[in-house]
Structure to design on (283 residues):
């Protein structure tokens, strides 16, 4: 069983770099978590480089704007790397293409400045999936017929956000990863940049190295709450993990507002996950 800690300061002296998840750890899409922000600021003041690693389909500039709107201060972090940033690199590597954007209009910055043409699904050569068109109202099954038609043409899907679901305030919202999962189920090919896959971790560690110089990977701490993304990514990258148990999986083991440690241990075992540390909320 992972060791329970009560403050990030209990362990931060063992690390030079922190790769911290955003949604569910630093904010919930509407409100910031002040104690988490204070913990990351304290880590930075102690000399640790804090890189926020997020499966947001937006380029990092869009996340900075969101932070300003909801009250996450710039002093909380040194750098941000988004799935959107890495997705743009994947799109650019494809060369000139006709792209169908499967996602809301707010995600158009993913295509800005790239040598691509946005088209309707019927004319597309490749799919860029950033989410559901109306994620407050729809679910992946609403897209089954559309995805089946796209798969029949053997179009590759680039998924800008591997997350299946996320909590927006108190509501659970489906993300692009849920559409990518359905597309794979239908036989479609997907290309994914965000957590738990290597490209986003490579980008984060490269930014940290530019800032502070060389460091050992055993001096890197990953922080997150999502089992298929944050946890699996840390395992794949062989990084120490601080698991935030009060996040998206809390319903598996929180009883009457308190963590049932036996249930938490069983949950981690079922998922073949062995984080080094855990705490309910980052503080």
């Amino acid at each position: 069983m992972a060791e329970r800690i009560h403050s990030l300061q209990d362990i931060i002296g063992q690390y030079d770099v922190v790769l911290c998840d955003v949604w569910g750890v630093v904010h919930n899409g509407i409100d910031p978590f002040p104690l988490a922000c204070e913990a990351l600021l304290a880590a930075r003041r102690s000399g640790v480089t804090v890189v926020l690693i997020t499966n947001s389909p937006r380029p990092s500039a869009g996340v900075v704007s969101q932070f300003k709107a909801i009250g996450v201060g710039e002093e909380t972090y040194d750098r941000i790397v988004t799935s959107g940033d890495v997705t743009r690199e994947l799109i650019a590597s494809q060369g000139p293409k006709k792209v169908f954007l499967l996602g809301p209009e707010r995600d158009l910055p993913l295509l800005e400045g790239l040598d691509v043409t946005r088209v309707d699904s019927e004319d597309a050569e490749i799919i860029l999936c950033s989410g559901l068109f109306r994620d407050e109202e729809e679910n992946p099954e609403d897209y089954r017929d559309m995805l089946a038609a796209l798969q029949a043409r053997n179009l590759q899907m680039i998924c800008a956000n591997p997350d299946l679901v996320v909590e927006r305030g108190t509501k659970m919202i489906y993300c692009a990863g849920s559409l990518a999962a359905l597309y794979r189920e239908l036989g479609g090919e997907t290309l994914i940049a965000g957590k738990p896959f290597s490209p986003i971790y490579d980008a984060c560690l490269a930014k940290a190295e530019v800032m502070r110089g060389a460091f050992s990977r055993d001096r890197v701490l990953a922080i997150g709450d999502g089992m298929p993304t944050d946890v699996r990514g840390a395992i794949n990258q062989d990084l120490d993990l601080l698991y935030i148990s009060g996040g998206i999986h809390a319903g598996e083991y929180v009883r009457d507002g308190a963590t049932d440690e036996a249930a938490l241990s069983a949950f981690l075992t079922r998922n073949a996950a062995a984080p080094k540390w855990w705490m309910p909320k980052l503080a």
Summary: The longest strand covers residues 49-54. Helices lie at 34-45, 60-70, 83-93, 144-152, 176-185, 198-212, 227-236, 261-270.
